[in-house]
Amino acid sequence: MNPICLIAGVGPGTGTALVRRFSSDYRVVMLARTEERLLSLERDFENCHAYPCDVADAASLTHTLDKIKVELGHPEIVIHNAVGGAFGDYTQTTRETLQKNFEVNTLALLQLAQELIPDMTEKGRGAVICTGNTSAFRGKASFAGFAPTKAAQRILAESIARAAGPNGVHVAYVAIDAVIDLAWTREHFSDKADDFFCHPDDIAQHVWQVAHQAKSVWTFESVIRPFGEQW
């Protein structure tokens, strides 16, 4: 029986691409708030299992993870791809917005690690991959309600990696410094060429490679971007 890969945050772009990439070799557990999308993917791909869940709801996430363990088993790979975002500078950002994004981006990562890494530690193997972005490294004026939570997410992932790594569990942070190729981004950047965008399937392939690195060459942090991106 194939091992389990849990993907938290299965949206129409990177999340769906991750499901497509990992479902050939893993039983993929899909977490997202949108049940309809998960059920559609469950029909489209073999070895996929839909578990509607809001990762920002601690009680709901614990209940869902317990259910997964009973029904399928313990994940060998966990990918935290869920994202809470907002636009606005510090004068426009509310405490509620910042708190909600912190719950999705950072606290959910902490809970996933606390509830799923112990089994990986017992087995001496496993991987936890977190997808991030440019905001994890710098705070632009219009991202005051988002960047602090992604920066906290990245530092938390590093702390988890330093603790879990010596026990055989690979924790890594994949930052996407790009505009991801989605229907709405294509419309918003309609004047841009194809090579301006970072394609979800290519992101998924990179995550796959990081999740399967040999122990002698583990990466904690990688930043991916299209070749034409200015940085």
Report on this structure.
42% of the residues lie in helices and 18% in strands. By secondary structure, it is of the alpha/beta class. It has one domain (4-224): Rossmann fold. The relative contact order is 0.14.
* Broad CATH class: Alpha Beta
CATH superfamily: NAD(P)-binding Rossmann-like Domain
**Overall tally of structural domains:** 1
CATH architecture title:
3-Layer(aba) Sandwich
Largest pleated sheet: 7 strands, parallel
Determine the strand fraction and express it as a percent band: 15-25%
Helix fraction, binned, reads 40-55%
Describe how the helices and strands are arranged.
Layout lengths: L3 E5 L5 H9 L4 E6 L2 H10 L3 E5 L5 H14 L5 E4 L14 H29 L3 E7 L13 H18 L5 E7 L2 E2 L2 H6 L8 E2 L1 H12 L9 E4 L7
Parallel strand pairs: 1-2, 1-4, 2-3, 4-5, 5-6, 6-9, 7-8
Helix pairs in contact: 1-7, 3-4, 4-5
Keywords:
231 residues; alpha/beta; Rossmann fold; seven-stranded parallel beta sheet; two-stranded parallel sheet; 18% strand; globular
Quick description:
The protein is 42% helix and 18% strand. It has 231 residues and is α/β, with parallel strands linked by helices. A seven-stranded parallel sheet has the order 3-2-1-4-5-6-9, sandwiched between helices. A two-stranded parallel ribbon has the order 7-8.
